[in-house]
Design a protein that fits this description.
Layout lengths: L2 H9 L4 H37 L12 E5 L21 E3 L6 E8 L2 E9 L18 E8 L3 E6 L5 E2 L2 E3 L10 E7 L2 E7 L6 E11 L5 E5 L9 E5 L5 H7 L5 E5 L5 E5 L7 H4 L2 H10 L20 H7 L4 E6 L6 E11 L2 E11 L1 H48 L19 H50 L4 H35 L4 E4 H16 L3 E5 L6 E4 L1 H18 L5 E9 L2 E9 L34 H11 L3 E6 L5 E8 L7
Parallel strand pairs: 1-3, 1-13, 20-22
Antiparallel strand pairs: 2-3, 3-4, 4-10, 5-6, 5-11, 6-8, 7-9, 9-10, 11-12, 11-13, 14-15, 14-18, 16-17, 17-18, 19-21, 22-23, 23-25, 24-25
Enzyme class: transferase
EC number: 2.7.13.3
Keywords: Kinase, Membrane, Phosphoprotein, Transferase, Transmembrane, Transmembrane helix, Two-component regulatory system
Length: 671
């Protein structure tokens, strides 16, 4: 991973800024939501107090019977299908499982009742039969403004409803209705006269089986049928609600069972529909309102409110809830508070509003945060990128200078120095000082061989002359053996000095070499004639291309390099072995190869053969016992480097020898 990449990754820490800003936006949105919830609860409580001042029309605190407002009078046929859902949630009586259901509705100022009884054993009779007879019947009690009317409903079969008073005589009011038998029971649908005002209704159903056992369900009373007060939609309450309802909000008053008693106001259109882009509005709802999962599945004209906040308000606890509308285009906040009169809960007040203000404020905060974060990220990222680029360039220059500090001959090139006062500047100056010391030590090592050879010549001459004088003296045989050994040592030391002097001369010759155009093929042919006599009795094979091999080179240095290779091959090739000298052209230059039969090269030494003072010869391969310093192949490498090439050694594929090759491109034209 590059330095710029690392710094760019470090620059990603700037993303903590928008993250922190986003947390701030979320916290602000939470506070805004809490503020809206508290404000809506306060509005709902104020509305509840305003409604409680005029409790007329509100349901009683205890149990009561809701009368549904019907759009039109249903047909009296015993079927509640045309009640438009008013009978979907009826009152239920009976135990252990309810077997009597009843619903009340009002249309054209007439009260309609629907009663459904589950009765598996029909014991029917007529309403005017004596009361002491056992048969299935319904006792109905109606409490008007100034009268309390008790009626008996009973039919022996389907048809017009038979109605009688408690004494079996015709009732004082005309009641229309139908008794409809059905499988497993019967249904009753009736309508009271238009001018008969009813405040409470009592209901008791008697079911007699074949054995005469009787079961009773309904509203219990003290010997009589109990009464349930009636209440319903209170249109007179709507003007007061309309006056008290805040603008842009919807208010509904419901009884303890959730039936709507009055409604007023409408939800304001969501301003965010036009002011906020759709994708941003969806983003806010997905990220900020993830906890809002409930969806409103009721219409604005719903007759009953089945909501958790309404149930909590009926229990006496104010509650707020966020919901999505069915289309998911906006969020709605609703608050429900108990409607109390004289300390008793008579119903609930539900108020709703849209959340457009929250989204608008969130959008403004998010837009500002996004703009500031983007500018900060681009600016800091650009600065870090420029800094990383500049730093990377300086480090690359330092790397390139370090790689080229030593050439192939081991000479130290000048290292660039910088005046920068940072860590990279200190590092470059430290490298420069180190390489200056290496250069001084390298120059000392280069001149050491010449100095040693010059200084050793005089002592060696003194020792040699002294040994010559001893040869003329009268010495015993043992002393002469010792003198012979000393003379042999002196000759070895002289050979070492001459070899070191030769390497020094070759190095100076390389420095002063002049290039000329050479036909390498002719040069190798001339050298091969001399090498055959030197290598005898070994055989020398010469493999050259038919055409000329032109090369700009120093012929004297090439011959010296070939001499070192041939001398090396002569030392390792057995007397009945072979040596092969070849040359071929290759892209950009020529290749000279000298292969010989002999031992394989150790793999660990292949990369070090052309270094100075490295030799693999043992005493049997040193020719007349002469010392071998391992400088021959080092000279070959120097000559190859002068000709912009390189030298290499490898074992032959068949394993019976080695091959040394020179890859030469030629000396530069300036030489």
């Amino acid at each position: 991973m590059g330095l710029r990449t690392k710094l760019l990754l470090v620059a990603l820490s700037i993303l903590a800024l928008p993250w922190a800003g986003w947390q701030f936006v979320r916290q602000m949105e939470t506070l805004l939501r809490q503020g809206q919830e508290q404000a809506l609860l306060a509005s709902a409580e104020a509305l509840a107090r305003g409604v409680a001042v005029r409790p007329g029309g509100l349901p009683p605190a205890g149990e009561s019977w809701f009368v549904h407002p019907l759009d039109f009078a249903p047909r009296l046929d015993g079927d509640a299908a045309d009640w438009r859902g008013a009978a979907a949630v009826p009152l239920a009586f009976g135990s252990p499982r309810p077997w009597v259901r009843a619903a009340a509705g009002r249309a054209n100022e007439r009260l309609h009742l629907w009663i459904s009884v589950d009765d598996a054993s029909a014991q029917r009779g007529e309403a005017h039969w004596p009361a002491d007879l056992h048969f299935d019947r319904v006792d109905l009690r109606l409490l008007g403004r100034g009268s309390d009317l008790a009626l008996r409903l009973a039919n022996s079969g389907s048809g017009p409803l038979r109605v009688a008073g408690e004494d079996g005589l015709p009732p004082p009011v005309r009641i229309e209705g139908v008794w409809r038998e059905r499988e497993g029971g019967y249904d009753i649908e009736l309508a009271l006269p238009q001018d008969f005002s009813v405040r409470a209704v009592g209901l008791r159903v008697r079911d007699v089986d074949a054995s005469g056992t009787e079961r009773i369900a309904g509203v219990a009373g003290d010997g009589r049928v109990g009464l349930l007060p009636l209440h319903g939609f209170v249109e007179s309450l709507e003007p007061a609600l309309q006056a008290l309802a805040p603008e842009g909000m919807r208010v509904r008053v419901a009884d303890r069972d959730g039936w709507v008693l009055a409604r007023a106001g409408e939800l304001r259109a969501d301003a965010s529909e036009e002011d906020i882009l759709p994708w941003r509005r969806s983003l806010y709802r997905a990220l900020l309102f993830r906890d809002v999962t409930a969806t409103i599945d009721e219409s604005a004209l719903a007759r009953r409110l089945v909501r958790a906040e309404v149930a909590a308000a009926v229990a006496g606890t104010p509650a707020v809830t966020w919901r999505r509308d069915p289309a998911g285009a906006r969020l709605l906040l609703s608050a429900a508070v108990p409607l109390e009169v004289a300390g008793q809960v008579r119903g609930t007040v539900l108020i709703e509003r849209s959340n457009s203000e929250v989204l608008l404020l969130t959008d403004q905060a998010f837009s500002g945060l996004l703009g500031v974060s983007l500018v900060a990220f681009l600016a800091s990222g650009g600065i870090i990128l420029l800094f990383a680029t500049r730093l990377g360039q300086r480090i690359r220059r330092l790397r390139d200078a370090a790689e080229s500090a030593l050439d192939r001959e081991g000479r130290v090139t000048p290292f660039p120095r910088t005046a920068a006062r940072d860590e990279i500047g200190d590092l470059s100056r430290s490298f420069a000082r180190l390489l200056d010391q290496v250069a001084a030590y390298t120059d000392y090592l280069r001149s050491l061989s010449g100095k040693l050879s010059h200084e050793l010549n005089t002592p060696l001459a003194i020792v040699r002359s002294s040994l010559d004088n001893l040869d003329h003296a009268r010495l015993d045989p043992e002393a002469r053996v010792v003198v012979a050994r000393a003379r042999d040592g002196v000759e070895r030391m002289g050979h070492l000095v001459r070899t070191m002097s030769e390497v020094t001369r070759i190095e100076h010759a390389i420095e002063a070499a002049e290039a000329e155009d050479v036909d390498l093929r002719r040069l190798l042919e001339d050298c091969a004639g001399a090498y055959r006599g030197l290598l005898a009795p070994r055989t020398l094979a010469l493999e050259l291309p038919p055409g000329a091999l032109p090369l700009r080179a120093s012929p004297e240095l090439l011959v010296q390099a070939l001499d070192k290779l041939v001398d090396n091959a002569r030392g390792f090739t057995p007397e009945d072995g072979w040596v092969r000298l070849s040359a071929t052209g290759e892209p950009g230059g020529v290749r000279i190869a000298l292969a010989n039969q002999g031992p394989r090269l150790p793999e660990t030494m292949r990369g070090r053969l052309f270094d100075s003072l490295v030799s693999l010869r043992d005493k049997t391969q040193r020719g007349e016992g002469a010392a071998h310093l391992g400088l021959g192949l080092y000279v070959v490498r120097l000559v190859a480097d002068l000709h912009r090439g390189h030298a290499e050694a490898r074992n032959l594929p068949d394993g019976d020898g080695v091959e040394f090759s020179l890859h030469l491109r030629g000396m530069p034209p300036s030489l």
